[in-house]
Each structure stands twice: as C-alpha cells, then as structure tokens.
Amino acid sequence: MKNPLPRLVPAILLFCAALACAASASAPAFAQDWAKTILDKSPRHQEWVKVKYGSRAVDAFVVYPEISRKAPVVLLIHEIFGLSDWARSMADDIAAMGYIVIAPDLLSGFGPNGGGTSAFPDQQSIIKAVSGLDPAAVTADLNATAGYALKFPSANGKLAVIGFCWGGGQSFRFATNRKDLAAAFVFYGPPPSADSLAAITAPVYGFYAGSDARISATVPDTKTAMAAAGKSYDPVIYDGAGHGFMRAGEDPSNTNPANTTARTQALKRLETLLKGM
What we know:
The chain is α/β, with parallel strands linked by helices. The protein has helices spanning 8-24, 27-30, 33-40, 85-95, 123-131, 135-150, 166-175, 213-216, 219-228, 245-248, 257-275, and strands at 46-53, 56-63, 71-77, 100-104, 155-164, 181-187, 204-209, 233-238. It has an 8-stranded mixed beta sheet with strand order 1-2-4-3-5-6-7-8, sandwiched between helices. Helix 4 (85-95) links the parallel strand 3 (71-77) and strand 4 (100-104). Helix 3 packs parallel to helix 4. It is globular. The two termini are 33 Å apart.
C-alpha cells in the first residue's frame, strides 16, 4: 500500500507550521498583559517546579484543580512563542475542569544567561529558539515532566497531553513515544511521520482552523494514515477560525468572531473528551 504521508511531508509541515505560527501573531502574542490579568485572578493554586533529570533542569508551571479527589495529569505543550502568559492561563483553564496541569518551559536553560522563555529579549528570538529545539531533547523533557507530575500525591495515574501550534505537532509526535497516554489533543499542529503512527496507543483528537490551510489541509491524509495504522483519530475543523484561535479567541484585540466561537466550542469539546478518558 502506498504511504499516504511521504517521509518528507512532516518535516516540511513542521517548518511551515513554525512560519504560520510566526506569521499569525505579531507583538500582541509577546505582550500578553490581558492573559496575565486572567491568570492572576484565578483561585487555583499555581506553582513553579524544577524537573531535574541527568544534567538537565526544566522549569515547569503547575496548576492544581480545586477538587476533593485525585485527578489525571494533563501535560501542556506551549506554542512556538514559548511558555507565555497565555500558555499558563490555558493551563489554568484546563485545571478548572478538574485536572492537574503541568506546562514545561521547553526553552529552560537555552535563553540568555541560562534562562528560559522570559529571558529572551523579544518574540522573534523566542520563535527562533523554539524552532531550533532538538526533537529528541523535547521528548526527553516531556517524558521527565510527565513522570514528575504523575508522582504527585493528588495524581491518579492517568496522563493526557495537549499542545497548541508548534506544541500541537509535538503533542501528536509525543503520542508516538509515550505508551501510557490516555489521550492526545492536537490543536492546529502537523502530524508526525506516517511510519511512526503504528506506535500510537492513545486516541488522538484534533482541533483545526478552517482558515488555516497550511495545517488543516493535512487532515484528510492524516485520517487515511491513522486508519491504515488502525489508530483512533478524531479531527474537527472550525469554520472561519484562524491559526491560534484558542489564544486569539480571548485576546481583546481579536477582530475575527469565528475565533471566539471556535474557542468556545473547542473548550466544550475538550472538557467532554477529558471526562471520557
């Protein structure tokens, strides 16, 4: 059977996705005072932790739900803009649904003076740094961070991964590397190579923008490839929404109502899917 996703396609898509992320948001994505304001008003417990393994240390942001039972862990992978205020506020949104959320800063140690995302001087330098991360190193960071959170006394042993933009592609790829995932949620990210799909053990749920052909055009071939591999893949494309609609949909400067509608609908779908794990 002819491979529906040639080997070169994922690499090209990852590059294009990086360009799309960069093109779809300018200064407002770097200056996110509105997101910080939302985060600062949250009643949930938030903390920074340092995940150490080997000679590496990864800073990660954790938000705990206000519930009386143990909860699943959701590993959140940030956009190409690094662990921004919006990424942290998104972690809080998911924690509000009843989940422990841990969001690693995958730029930890790679910024000026050994810092992370916040140490970079501007958005373009963050984009360049994230684009240059080694996939194997990213996987190692994600595995270490997930393992760290699963040891929390309040964690119930279940693990899901969710990613946005660049992180969406990484969440799909992480599903090919992590066998104990309960679910993978891909927000407008490209698929991994077709020959890696056989390693996926969790259902994969896609959230895509109708006005984002660079990414949404990959969905039909991905459906074919996942079906051929005998894997569960359930994508939804939100009409009229643009790339990054989860962030743009709550940004006060947003001028596309479809982004707000897509965000609202996607949040409801995500909550339902998380409950069904």
